[in-house]
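Long-time lurker, first post. I've been practising inverse folding by hand and with some scripts of my own, and I keep getting stuck on stretches where the structure tokens seem ambiguous. Below is the full token string for one chain I'm working on. Before anyone asks, I'm not after the true native sequence, just a reasonable design that respects the backbone. If someone could post their per-position residues I'd love to compare against what I wrote down in my notebook.
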């Protein structure tokens, strides 16, 4: 978590200066993205909210979506990550929507992705970007930290 804080601090500084906000949808990073952003003084100026959308119950209960809303997309994929980033941005009326979705380990997920696989996405005005990270690691905690770093770096690279 400590290595995430400098990234989050820079993100917070930029977002506050621009008077912009972010909403976060994360899964296998387990809330580390949100925690790092919220650890910054003055986070209420830029952090609209976030959720750990980890299981189907959270998908239905927290964001009010059904399997049909996915139109054939699967979790832990770039299209899903872009959909989730766009959805959280819209629901929270944020300038930026950020998503992380993957398989932290020690095993892979039900879609055939190995442990250490995550997709991140960022959606904002004129920006819709996603990418995939494969760590090759099965250590759950290490992957969670690496996944959170990947999401924060994606956001920072695109707001600098």
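-- Answer (accepted) --
I ran through it position by position. Result:
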């Amino acid at each position: 978590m400590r290595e995430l804080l400098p990234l989050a601090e820079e993100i917070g500084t930029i977002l506050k200066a621009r008077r912009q906000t972010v909403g976060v949808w994360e899964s296998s990073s387990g809330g580390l993205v949100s925690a790092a952003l919220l650890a910054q003084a003055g986070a209420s100026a830029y952090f609209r909210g976030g959720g750990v959308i980890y299981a189907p119950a959270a998908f239905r209960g927290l964001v009010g979506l059904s399997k049909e809303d996915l139109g054939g997309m699967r979790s832990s994929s770039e299209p899903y990550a872009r959909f989730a980033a766009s959805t959280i941005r819209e629901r929270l009326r944020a300038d930026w929507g950020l998503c992380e979705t993957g398989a932290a380990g020690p095993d892979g997920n039900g879609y055939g992705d190995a442990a250490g696989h995550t997709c991140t996405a960022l959606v904002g005005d004129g920006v819709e970007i996603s990418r995939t990270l494969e760590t090759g690691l099965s250590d759950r905690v290490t992957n969670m930290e690496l996944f959170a770093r990947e999401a924060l770096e994606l956001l920072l690279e695109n707001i600098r």
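A couple of notes from the structure itself: The first helix runs from residue 5 to 18. The chain is about 40% helix and 20% strand. Happy to go over any region you disagree with.
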